[in-house]
Structure formats: structure tokens, C-alpha cells
Specification:
Receptor-associated Protein, 12 helices
Length: 287
Amino acid sequence: MVFYLVPALVIICIIFVISLRVGKRYEIVIEQFKGQYPFLFMAPVSLYLIDQYKIMERLYGQIVKVQQKMISLYGNRTALQHTRMYLAQLISIILICLVATLLFTALAEGDVAILIVGLFFTLIMPYAMVNKLSSQEKERKDKILIELPEVVNKLILLINAGETVQQALVRCVTTANNPNSPLIVELTEAVNKMVSNEPFHQVLNDFSKKCGIQEISIFTTTILLNYRKGGNDLIIALRDLSRELWEKRKNISKTKGEEASSKLVFPLILIFVAVMIIVGYPAITIM
């Protein structure tokens, strides 16, 4: 019991000492991410360890993959800060799992099974968190692709009605049904830049890079190649693109439906087993 309790207390003491040493150094940084990440009470310790041992520089090859996902989710400006905070959360979870494993093992009087299970979860949690981040990135891309055909159709209608591309984009943002959707959020930022007299081609290029989706790149390229000409050339190009995007949307909806069906299989199996037990148990007891 003492064999497992001592290292747990040592880790807790180290965390406590680091917390006292750090003080309020990272208070402003943590305040920016309040509500976005769990275990923020451990963030000062984790951020200190990241800075002290230069973890981001030493593990750059692995961390750059996480940073690419953060660029896709939050854009270039805040991607580095999000990556740093995300790494801090990974370290926090590892420390919490490790301390909890040692304490529970000590309380179970050195039960090796609890130690093995705890260490397994400690090792698997970072992988699970990175997996969840990939799922968030995919979900965001799917939402953008589902909404993009509607935006393209609105543009076609507005340009046909005599508005310029810039005016049509502004109207798409102001009349959006869901202003908090990923695509409209990115479009709103692009429109704000456009209204601030930033060059139109630069605004669309930044919009394309921030979304990080091939279909968005095709959309912005189509507009940039044809908006100066105007007239039928732009309308025809957008209509061709719209047809392709609707097909893409159908495929995404079909895939999501198949995923939902596959998720129902396991609960149905459990229900079937439960029904078999309920029906079969009386017959077995009678026999």
C-alpha cells in the first residue's frame, strides 16, 4: 500500500510546489480559454512544464499535426495558443490519471489489476483526445460542405437580380438562418474585412485558407476567375459548382445516415440479449 501511496503523494507535492511557484503568471492566458477546455485548475502547472522543458519545441513533429487541426478549427491567428492550451490539457489529464491510479491502487491494498487498468487509461487518454479533435475537425468540415450549396444558390439568385458579388456575399451573411454555423462565421469575418476595404482577392484567399477545404478553394477560385467578367460566365460557373456541391451534400447525408444506423446495432444487441434473458429465465427455473 505504502509503495503506491508515496509516489502519489510525491506527485501531488510537486504539483502543489509548482502552483505556488507559478502564482498568477498564466492567469491572463487561462482566462482567454475559460469554458473551452476542462481541467483549467491544472493549467498553470502544465503550462509551466511546457515552458520549462520546451516540450513544444522538442516534440514539434508530433505537435504540428495537432496545430494543423487547430488552424482548421480556429484559424491561423489563435492556432498556436490553442495548440499550447491543448497540450497543457493533455499533460493535466495524464497527471490526474496517474495520481488517481496510484491512490486507488494504494486503497485496494496494491491490487495489480487496478494499477494495470489505470496505467492503460493514462496511456490511452491522449490518443482518445487527439481522436476527438479529429472528429471535431471532420464535423466542422461536414457542416461547411452541407451549408455551402445553399450559399452558392443564394449568390446565383442575388447576382441574377443585379447585385455585385460583394453585395451578394454581404446579403448572404445578413440573411443567414443560422449565424453561428461554421461557414457563416467564416463568411462574416471575410465580409467584415471586405467592408474595411481590404482587397477582395486577398479576403477570399484568406477565407479559403482558414476553412481549409478543397470545395471552398474551388468556390473562391471560381468567383475570382469570373467576377470581373460578371454576366453569364459567373452564373454558369456557379451553377456548375452548385450541382457538384449538392451531390457532395447528398453523399455526406447518406454517410451520416449509415453511421447513425451502425451506432444503433450495439444497443439493439443489448436489448435483444436482455429480452432473451427475461423470456428464458422463467423457463430455465421451471425446468
